[in-house]
Amino acid sequence: MRTTPRRLGLLGGITWHSSIEMEREINEGVNAALGGSNSGDLVVRSYNFQHIAELQAAGDWGGLGSEFAADAVALQNAGAEAIMICANTMHKVAPAVEAAIDVPLIHMLDATADAVLAAGLDTVALLGTGYTMRDPFYRDHMATRGITTIAPPEPALSELHELIYGSLAKGVVPVGARGQVLAILNPLLAQGAQGMISGCTEIPMVVTQADIEVPYFDSAGLFVDAALKFCLDDQP
């Protein structure tokens, strides 16, 4: 193990409620490993989520990809030895970011896929934003790893998206939100899903492993684990 952590570049604030938790967990993980007053060596670009949400709603993924790629290069120029996109949905622009940088991209979907495969599963429920559940970028990436994802049908899909953007993204957990998410999940388990991917970094605000009996894959936590491995291992 290294005696000092590698520097990480975080594209965060998407939303800040989850990405600030990732920062906290990275700092705590580095300190737990190295002791003393050690913490993460982080450079962070935290976005105004209103701006991001408006471009998403307009379908301007090309603009988002260009913006994130330019910001990733800026983080690399500030000494980042790897880049993190701190949201599942924004991994839609991961190819643009990866093409722009000369350092590794720590990929949230791969961190999640690694855990699903390590558990011996090949079919999982995918709960996330409407973009993540509808768009092929997530299911296609998982399919390249031999994993089938099952997303909820309408109107449940739109209900979950509204819960995330209308409440959780603002740090608000409505009364009954846990029951709402479980009611969306249970039919997917009946369809053959062997576990659940928390495919939005805000979902752990509502549902965690303690709430379900099947394996639960917390994309945010798995992402942090991958980041800690990179920044602490001699050979990441």
| Chain-averaged pLDDT | 97
Classification by helices and strands: alpha/beta
Into which percent range does the helicity of residues fall?
A: 40-55%
Silhouette: globular
Main pleated sheet:
4 strands, parallel
Number of strands: 8
Low-confidence stretches: none
The run of helices and strands is EHEHHEHEHEHHEHHEEH
Strand content: 5-15%
Tag the structure with descriptive keywords.
single chain; 236 residues; alpha/beta; 4-stranded parallel β-sheet; 10 helices; 8 strands; 49% helix; 14% strand; globular
Summarize the structure.
It is built from ten helices and eight strands. The model has no long low-confidence stretch (mean pLDDT about 95). It has helices at about 15-35, 50-55, 60-75, 95-100, 110-120, 130-135, 135-145, 155-165, 175-190, 220-230, and strands spanning about 5-10, 40-45, 80-85, 105, 125, 150, 195-200, 215-220.
Overview of this protein structure:
Helix 1 (16-34) packs across helix 10, helix 3 packs parallel to helix 4 (94-100) and helix 8 runs antiparallel to helix 9. The radius of gyration is 17 Å and the shape is globular. 49% of the residues lie in helices and 14% in strands. Helix 1 (16-34) links the parallel strand 1 and strand 2. By secondary structure, it is of the alpha/beta class. A four-stranded parallel β-sheet has the order 2-1-3-4, with helices on both faces. The longest helix has 19 residues, at 16-34. It is built from ten helices and eight strands.
